[in-house]
Write a structure and sequence with these properties.
Layout: H1 8-20, H2 26-29, E1 33-36, H3 42-51, E2 57-61, H4 64-74, E3 82-86, H5 89-93, E4 107-110, H6 135-141, E5 147-153, H7 158-167, E6 170-180, H8 189-200, E7 211-220, H9 233-242, E8 262-263, E9 266-267
Helix pairs in contact: 1-3, 7-9
The chain binds S-adenosylmethionine (SAM).
Length: 291
């Protein structure tokens, strides 16, 4: 089933809307935006409807069922500036790939797969973000776009990812953070085990209520608003906030109730269930007053 989470996907849509409404970033978006993994397309459809933005957005979705649903939803955007294509984002945006418009897009957005696991998790393979959950986000940040908006999770090596962005020449231009309750995907055995391992090595941060998700907009140094030689205060604050998500070290994989353990003399509090995974709403409700 195509991914849609009422909390996470809605938050992603708000981050996209904020990007589309930014007067400072508008000149950098003029050539269009490419999106990895629209899922149901509902987040971007709603962001476009709320903002009234005319920026063309092309979403690439690997999953055939999701791509079909997303493409129908995108067709409902009144200004006709959202297109969804089935395919791999990286193949479609690689240098030399056939261009979909005269001016190549210089901005990438997405709520990329970020579940960490040492093997592709059965039941959530399209949400797998590699060993540390940050593999797909790192790949996007290595693609030399001018602007990148990505959702990054405190359970998926957030500090390493922020450092990677800096090393790739980016500077944090904007961010929003919100808490996300653990859901059925993060409770899958391979995933929850790996989250615990990452926590014990200081690469995942979460607490009884769940973890933090940040919608981060990076701009490449060289652009006037991304002076490379200045310290990146946005990145410093973001790192600090994401690491305060909590210091739990394990999720209960079976009962949905937290495990209390003692680590370094400190009792760790339970992780409580709280995720609401709902099926996507029918495509017919994606336009008009539903936005
Ligand atoms: C976490 S879901 C986000 C879906 C939607 N953007 C949302 O926030 O509701 C990630 C999506 O990316 C898709 N995906 C993963 N890797 C991809 C790739 N290389 N190219 C295109 N889509 C990809 C998955 O199939 C999935 O639909």
């Amino acid at each position: 089933m195509p991914f849609f989470d009422p909390i996470e996907s809605t938050f992603y849509g708000h981050c996209v809307e904020r990007l589309l409404m930014s007067p400072e970033l508008a000149p950098l978006l003029a050539g269009g935006i490419v999106e990895i993994g629209p899922g149901t397309a509902r987040p971007v459809v709603e962001a476009l409807q709320r903002s009234g933005s005319r920026v063309p957005i092309t979403g690439y979705e690997l999953d055939a069922e999701a791509a079909r649903m997303a493409s129908r939803a995108a067709a409902g955007v009144e200004l006709g500036n959202y297109t969804v294509v089935q395919g791999d984002f990286f193949a479609a945006t690689a240098p030399g790939a056939p261009a979909v418009s005269a001016r190549p897009a210089r901005c990438a957005i997405g709520n990329p797969p970020y579940l960490p696991a040492t093997v592709r998790p059965v039941g959530a393979s399209h949400l797998w973000g590699g060993h540390d959950g940050a593999h797909v986000a790192r790949r996007i940040l290595s693609a030399e776009m001018d602007v990148v908006l990505l959702m990054i999770a405190s359970i998926s090596d957030p500090v390493g990812l922020v450092q990677h962005a800096r090393a790739a020449g980016y500077r944090v231009a904007d961010w929003l953070v919100r808490p996300i309750p653990f859901g059925r995907y993060s409770r899958l055995p391979w995933v929850s085990r790996r989250i615990g391992e990452l926590a014990r090595s200081g690469r995942a941060f979460f607490g009884p209520e769940g973890y933090l998700l940040a919608g981060v907009t990076w701009v490449r140094a060289g652009d006037p608003i991304a002076a490379a030689d200045e310290p990146d205060h946005g990145a410093t604050v973001l790192r600090r906030i994401l690491t305060t998500a909590g210091s739990a070290t394990g999720l209960d994989e079976t009962a949905g109730v937290g495990r209390t353990t003692t680590v370094d003399g400190h009792r760790r509090t339970p992780i409580l269930p709280g995720h609401r995974e709902l099926p996507a709403r029918p495509v017919s409700r994606l336009s008009g007053s539903d936005a």
